[in-house]
Amino acid sequence: MIELINISKRFGSTTAVDSISLKVESGEFxxxxxxxxxxxxxxxxxxNRLIEHSDGEIxxxxxxxxxxxxxxxxxxxxxxxxxxxLFPHWTVARNIGLVPRLLKxxxxxxxxxxxxxxxxxxxxxxxxxxxxxxxxxxxxxxRVGVARALAADPDILLMDEPFGALDPITRExxxxxxxxxxxxxxxxxVFVTHxxxxxxxxxxxxxxxxxxxxxxxxxxxxxxxxPANDFVASLLGGEDxxxxxxxxxxxxxxxxxxxxxxxxxxxIDQGASLREALSVMLWRxxxxxxxxxxxxxxxxxxxxRRLVGARGHD
Length: 314
Ligand SMILES: Nc1ncnc2c1ncn2[C@@H]1O[C@H](COP(=O)(O)OP(=O)(O)OP(=O)(O)O)[C@@H](O)[C@H]1O
Ligand SMILES: [Mg+2]
Fold this sequence. Notes:
Helix content is about 35%, strand content about 25%. By secondary structure, it is of the alpha/beta class. The chain folds into two domains: about 1-245, P-loop containing nucleotide triphosphate hydrolases (Rossmann fold), CATH 3.40.50.300; about 250-305, CBS-domain, CATH 3.10.580.10. The strands form three sheets. It has a six-stranded mixed β-sheet, with helices on both faces. Strand 11 (about 265-270), helix 13 and strand 12 (about 290) form a beta-alpha-beta unit. Helix 5 (about 105-120) packs across helix 7. The longest helix has 18 residues, at about 170-185. The chain is globular and about 70 Å long. The mean pLDDT is about 90.
């Protein structure tokens, strides 16, 4: 769906992006990570032409982006940033309706769309529609920013640290919403973040950048397990990579059938991660957990040996 071919961007004598090639498939969730100044935001902004690339070609559905009319780019690509970029003198409703208005949708259709999006992002119409951005908390403003990016129902979403300023609980609920949106509506998402846990859990494709170049890309598990070099390994968490890998694997992956020795007292949900299981073992000081299904019925067990992937019998 999105293809960057040998893309470079120079600002005067600075090379911000240095001949990168990247293909994001339709419906894929692609996360860009890397140290500050490595060219993530520049890469994102070249895709919607907020920045013109210096060299190479960018295609959307096999068409060079320079051949698209501005209106088409606006309709097809939503863009959300950490600082939200909301217009301060516009109400929440007006901010969300920005792109549909630019696209000259009829008023009734814009109003209906704004209402739909506010419901989707858990913003009550009565409470928020008439508020101004400076009357919102950071998290509410970020929700409005995401709603605005979704307004014209774009098939591509570009998101630059959209949850950067959020507490872990709000952040997690927005991450779940976004994952759900992507799965349900089949959006193609390119997402920039500094939070490696966020990148690892959200991404189908993880792209590691350094000094304007792509160091490595692939599925988060394969990048974690087989980093191309020391830089990638340390960016992904160094010695913490074991925990990061465990966070991506479900308990069901290492579960054993129920034994005959009675069901363990401490329980873990089958959908929980191995990292959560390890945490429960540490916290409860036990080496065995009963694995339960959605109805809390034990369906298997997980031992510490199995959890760490040791071979042989318990
Ligand atoms: N408009 C500009 N003019 C000149 N240099 C720029 C411009 N925009 C970005 N740069 C430079 O390009 C490089 C890449 O910047 P970019 O904003 O893409 O980094 P980033 O990976 O998004 O960093 P961060 O994680 O800090 O947001 C930096 O060295 C930056 O100083
Ligand atoms: Mg940036």
